[in-house]
Amino acid sequence: KKPVHWSPSSRTALAEAELEYPEGHTSRSIYVAMPITVVGDNVPAEVKELLATPGIRAAFAIWTTTPWTIPANLAVAVNADLDYCLVKAEGETATGWHSDHLIVAEALVNSLAEKFSTPLQVLATFKGECLEGCHYQHPLYERVSPLVIGGDYITTDSGTGLVHTAPGHGQEDYQVGLRYGLPLLSPVDDAGCFTDEAGPGFAGLAVQKEGNQAVVEALTSKGVLLKEEQYAHKYPYDWRTKKPTIFRATSQWFASVEGFRSAALDAIRGVSWVPAVGQNRITAMTEGRNDWCISRQRKWGVPIPVFYDKRGMGHQGLQLEFVLRILCMSSECLCMHCYWGLACAVRHTYTPVPRILPCWLGTCA
């Protein structure tokens, strides 16, 4: 189980090649304060002293373009090599905030002060690596989570320099979660609606519509919403339904690219691409991924020949004799109905995996 591109409109996982990035997409972006509860041992002494001052309410400031993923937040990540600051927010805007002291990237202090419409006084500066070991309170739940060290994907090009991390809804988040042993939380169902795991205030709401609004309203009521604004950027859409997708952890079947990466790259270079830019895209995809999702949630197509054991004994591949019977009958009737017919023969003990192969694999099956 790991996060993949998911289309709520067609209720299936999608590959990168099945995505479109139309112009003109705008997302609701929010800046949120994550109240600090534990100061780590590596934090400089002067910063510890400041944070221990009576009446100080400090928080990590994060930015996200997907407010609906906040319920799944399990960490805040920083870049170990970037410089960060403890700043004091002054002025009328900050009076309604839960936290008047924020930790943000040093390079973004001036732009954030302008964005928040409030002066930010720098009290101390330190490296991101010093923050590892700190913990914070989730702004909506009674859940304490760690501050972790991310990677080069954390920059000062936008946001705050601190990244809201939800392992169930992002690839980098997932990788960081593996390193730190974080659980995989994804309280969203196939239709793109919050599940009961998200809480009574959100359950049943469509995450990209009223679910987004409910999260923003909840954060506002807690006094942790620092800023909301529209953000224009490229966003993945389902190429069939022309509707936006989400990134969501689901149980899928994956092929490890490590075993065939070199051969695949050789094959790519041996093809004449029209237009030529297509070669760059597929090369980057093949070089940059470790796993390839090879399952889809559809009724048509070539099924994955694996059955779940109803007796609780996991899953197992079909035996050779059964596979040969399927292939022989398929060649006679030129369709896959026979597969499901044969599956009925073992239905009392086994349940077919409700997945098919992607079309580019199915045509080779």
Outline of the structure:
It contains nine helices and 20 strands. By secondary structure, it is α+β, with helices and mostly antiparallel strands. The longest helix is centred in the C-terminal third of the chain and has 14 residues, at 320-333.
Q: What tags apply to this protein structure?
A:
365 residues, alpha+beta, 10-stranded mixed sheet, 3-stranded antiparallel sheet, 20 strands, 23% helix
Number of strands: 20
**Major sheet: size, sense and barrel closure?**
10 strands, mixed
Provide the β-strand percentage band. 25-35%
What oligomeric state is this?
Answer: single chain
How many helical stretches?
Answer: 9
Explain what the structure shows.
This protein is 23% helix and 27% strand. It is an alpha+beta fold. Strands 4, 5, 6, 7, 8, 9, 10, 11, 12 and 13 form a ten-stranded mixed β-sheet that branches. Strand 1 (2-7) and strand 2 (12-14) form a beta hairpin. Helix 5 packs antiparallel against helix 6 and helix 7 packs across helix 8 (337-344). The longest helix is centred in the last third of the chain and has 14 residues, at 320-333. The chain starts with a strand and ends with a helix. The model has no long low-confidence stretch (mean pLDDT 86).
